[in-house]
Request: fold
Amino acid sequence: MTDIIDEIEASHQEAKTNLILNKLIKTIGIVALIAIIITIAVNWYIERKKDKIYEIASQMNNILRKINTPGANNKDLIRDLENLDNSDNSYGALSNFYLAAVNKTYGNLSKMAYFYDKVVANEEYNDIIRQYAAINSINVKLQNK
Reply:
C-alpha cells in the first residue's frame, strides 16, 4: 500500500516538475522571440541611418565636384550645399566648413563666422570639430573686427 502511495506522490511530483518546465520553456521562448525582434528592428534602424549618411555623402561629393567648374551655376550649388549643412553627422559639419571657405573667397567674413558658429552650436558634432570651428570663428571675428 505504501508503494502505491509513493508511486502516486512520485507521479504527482513529476507532473508538477513538467508543468514548471513547460512554463519555463515558454517564458524562455517568448524572451528569445522578443530579443530577435528587437535585434531585427535595431539592425533595420542602423541600416537606414547608414543609407542616409551615404546619400548625404554622395550629394556632397556631386556638389563639390561641380563647384568652380566652367559653366557651373555656383549659386545653385552653394544653395544645395546649404541644404546639407543642417544634418547632424560629420557631413553637416563638413558642409559648413566648405560654406565658410566659399564665403571667404567672396570676402564675406561675417557669413564665414556664421557657418563656423553653426558648427559650434550643434552639440551632435564631435567636440574636437566644434573646438576647431570655435577657433576659426574667433579668428574670423577678430579679422572682421
Q: What stands out?
A: The chain has a mean pLDDT of 85. Residues 2-66 form the longest helix (65 residues). The CA atoms of residues 90 and 139 lie 22 Å apart. The chain has five helices and no strands.
